[in-house]
Amino acid sequence: MKKIAILIETRQGKIKPSMHGVITAAQGSGHELFALVFDSDGAKYTDELKTFGINKLVAITFRDPAVGSNPDSRARAIIQAMNHFETHTLFALTSLEGKDFLPRVAARLDAPLVIDCLRVNLADSTVEKPQFSGKTVATIHVSGTHRIFGIRPNAIEPKPMPVDTEVVPFEYDGPNDGRYEVKELRKSKVDGIDLSEADIIISGGRGMQNGENFQMLHECARVMGAAVGASRVAVDAGWVPHSMQVGQTGTTVCPKLYIACGISGSVQHFAGMKTSGTIVSINTDPHAAMMQQCDYGIVGDLFEIVPTLTRQLISVSQ
Amino acid sequence: MKIFVCVKHVPDSAATIRIIEPKEIGENITFLLNPYDENAVEAAVQLRSEIDDTEVIAVTVGKPAAADTLRSALAMGADRGIHVITEYWPDSIVTARALNAAITQDGDPGLILTGKAAIDSEGFQTQFRVAAMLDIPVATNVGAITLHDDGVEVTCGQEAGGELIIQMSLPCVIGAAKTLNTPRYPTLPDIIKARKKEIKEMKFESLGIGPQDSHMEIIGLRPAVEERRKQFIDGSAQEAVVELIRRLDEEAKIKLVS
Question: The whole model's pTM is what?
Answer without folding.
Answer: 0.93
